[in-house]
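Input/output pair, single chain:
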Amino acid sequence: MSLIEVRGLSKFYGPYAAVRDVSFDIKEGEVVGLLGLNGAGKSTILKILGSFLLPSSGGASMAGFSVEDDSDRVRELIGYLPDRPPLYDEMRVVPYLRYVAKLKNVAPGKIDERIADVLRKTNLVEVAWQPLGELSHGFRQRVGIAQALIHNPRVIILDEPINGLDPVQIVEMRDLILSLRGKHTVILSSHILSEITRTCDRILIIDKGRLVAEGNEAELEKAFVTSMRVVAEIKGTCDMAALKGLSGVRRVIEAQSAASGTKILTVECDGDLRAVIAKTLITSGAELLEIGREGDGLETVFMNLVRASKDTTPSNGSSEAAHG
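Output:
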C-alpha cells in the first residue's frame, strides 16, 4: 500500500492551471524527486501535499488522511521546507528549534533530545547559538531542514533545497538528504538534473502542471531515449567498416587528437551499444583507452519531453511561473 496517493489533482488560479490532472503514488521510505523547469507546478503540488493549499479538483491523501478533510493529521505526519525557510532572523538557532518543537507538539521532556538530534544530523552544532540573521545561506537551509525534522515526521517535503547553494554546500546538502533515506519518506523538487539523479529513487517529471513521465533514471531512458552518442578514444587503427556496419549504428565521426596522438570516434547509434562497440574496436586491433556516452541520459529525456510538451500544449501564461 502506498503512503501517499494523489488522484486527478488540479489547481487553478482563475482560468490558469498551475497543476492539471496529476496522479501518482509514493511508497513508505522512498526518496522521490519532482523535476521540472521553474514555474512547472512543482511547488504547488508540494503545498497541496502539505495541506498548505487546497486543490481545485481531485485529491491527495497521506497514510489514509485526506489533505483537505484531515489537514491537521497530515501536518503531524510531515516536515516541510518551503523554497524560503520560515526563519526569524532575531532568534538564535536553539531557541528557534525549541519554539518550532513546541508548535509541532513535541513532548516537553523530549524537546532537548530532539534538538540535539537534529543539530547533529544537519551539522549545526557549531552555530547552535548564533542568530539566524547572521548565518550563511547554506546554514540557513540546514536550519530549515532541522525545523522540518524536529518532530521526527514520517514524510519530509523539501522545495528546492539546494537552490542558491555553492558547490560545497550542494554536496553537503546532498549527503544530508541521502542520510534521510530509509528513515523517512522524502519528496523534493528541483530543476537541477544531476542532483535529482544522485538523491532520488524515482523521478516525476512535471511540465506545465502535468505529470509527463515517471520512473527511475534507467526506466525513463529506456522509454524515451531513442538514440545515443558513444565516444571512444583509441590508439592505432580499427576496422571502420565493421564499426559502421553494426546494427543500430547510424554514423561514425572520426577526429584526430593532435595533443595525444589518439583518435576520437563519435558513434551515433540507436540505444546503448557501448559494449558491442568496445568489443568491435578491440577485435579489430585498436587499443581502447576510454569509452562512454556523450551527455546525460536524464537530460536527454527531460529535454525531449519538454520539447514535445511545447509542441502540443498551449501555454498557460504568467500565472504558472508565479505559482509553480
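The domain at 226-293 is CATH 3.30.70.260 (Alpha-Beta Plaits). DSSP finds twelve helices and 14 strands in the chain.
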